Amino acid sequence: MDRIIGVAALLVGLAASPALATEWVSCTTPAGEASFDYLVGSLDVLAVAGLNISVGERVWASSVAYGPGDPVVVGQAFEDDEVVLIDAMDDGMSSVIAQLRLFKAEEGDNPVVYSGTLRIVDHGAWTVSCIGG
To answer: What is the number of other CB atoms lying within 10 angstroms of the CB of residue 112?
Structure first.
């Protein structure tokens, strides 16, 4: 009987736990020549779970599950009420591939609006706007 009560308590606890969701934030240049997409979890801190970066025919991806491309990892990431800062690095963590710098704003019940700059080393720097998150 104690085992049944224990199992029931465990199931109730699991059912009451918040779901861990992820969502892509997709940032693109106005003309579409470059993009930086990042997958975030629903934590109280910025937790980047995946990256896709592209410029022209060049593509980087943090996992084959997110698409083809050269390997890339999150070097550092920071978010507060006003900004999002993400550095993408090569898989050896020896050089920066791209830097995303965003300002964000929201008003009332409207979704958060993201806009800023994307720099891809040896390719250029652009303004970007983002959806998702």
So the answer is: 14
Q: List, in sequence order, every residue forming a beta bridge with 92; answer none if it has no partner.
A: none
75 in a domain, yes or no? yes
Instruction: Give a yes or no: residue 8 inside a domain.
Output: no
6 in a structural domain: no
The pLDDT tens digits for 80-113 are 989 999 999 999 999 999 999 999 998 999 988 9
Model confidence, pTM = 0.80
Contacts of 53 (CB under 8 A, 6+ apart): 35, 36, 37, 59, 60, 61, 69, 72, 88, 97, 98, 120
Distance from chain centroid for Cα 91: 17
- Look-up of token digits 């693109």: 28
- Where do the H-state alpha helices sit in the chain? 2-16
